[in-house]
Design goal:
Length: about 280
């Protein structure tokens, strides 16, 4: 992936080029690769903490830089709020031709580059295949990678594209019909379990999208929906959104911690604890 320099507390900055597009990719760890596609506002310290948990399982991680300023802490941004930091990343991404935000039945063009990154990461890191985690704006990208990359452990956390401004968009999984068919076929051929996480009150990741995934994948889709209703026993805020990062309550017995552990066990069982050959 090119020459690297050490940045971001142990993560190596590398580059990856496909079809004329070159982007930075931050790498850490050893073992089978997991591609972690960040939520807004990008590769933050919170996301890096999450990535280190993946490394501890025995995987390497690849964090592609798609938007935002890598390493920026939105909670220590000189008076700027986390919401304003997210907005500064959100607006350019929304108008970018690489992301399909308001159309059903279309795959975001960035998917081609991400699939190529997944294939290259598998060649470099070895193992039986790769894992992939998409979050929020990129949540559904994990499903898209299944169609044309060696994915064995896909995780969709609060998938939010396309934006659910109509019933059809709320049901959409953000892929073209051909990519949907390819992903469904690959799930069957590889005997995959697809994990999905969302909070029950999250309007950005609507329940209709999980219903579509259940219709498409049947028991292969394990959709975990965490109670964020007013007065819920877990203390989740009503607007809780980021299951694995900002809204994670990292305590034993908490449902967000259970979701994190479920994801790590998927990586361990499908990528790490697999006999060679």
């Amino acid at each position: 992936m090119g020459a690297s320099t050490v940045e971001l507390d142990g993560f190596d900055r590398t580059t990856f080029t496909h079809a004329g597009a070159t982007r930075a990719v931050y790498r850490a760890g050893q073992g089978p690769a997991v591609v972690v596609i960040s939520e807004m506002p990008g590769i933050t310290p919170t996301l890096l903490t999450f990535a280190r948990r993946v490394v501890e399982v025995g995987c390497s991680v690849a964090l592609p830089h798609l938007f935002g300023e890598p390493g920026r802490d939105p909670e220590r941004s000189g008076g700027r709020s986390m919401a304003s930091d997210a907005l500064s990343s959100f607006a350019p991404a929304c108008v970018s031709r690489e992301f399909t935000v308001l159309a059903s039945g279309r795959t975001s063009p960035i998917m081609d580059w991400l699939r190529a990154l997944g294939r290259e990461a598998h060649v470099e890191c070895g193992g039986p295949g790769i894992g992939v985690v998409g979050m929020c704006f990129t949540g559904g990208f994990a499903l898209g990678l299944i169609a044309d990359a060696p994915v064995l452990a896909p995780v969709l956390s609060q998938p939010s594209l396309p934006f659910g401004l109509s019933p059809g968009l709320r049901r959409s999984v953000g892929l073209s019909p051909s990519d949907v068919s390819a992903a469904v076929e690959a799930c069957s051929a590889r005997d995959l379990t697809v994990l999905g996480f969302r909070f029950t009150g999250d309007r950005l990741a609507p329940p209709e999208r999980f219903a579509t995934l259940r219709e498409l994948l049947g028991d292969r889709f394990v959709g975990v929906e965490i109670d964020s209703s007013p007065g819920n026993p877990w203390g989740h805020r009503r607007a809780a959104h980021s299951v694995l990062t900002y809204d994670l309550i990292d305590e034993s017995g908490q449902p967000t911690r259970d979701a994190l552990d479920q994801m790590l066990e998927l990586f361990r069982s499908r990528l790490v604890d697999v006999a060679p050959g």
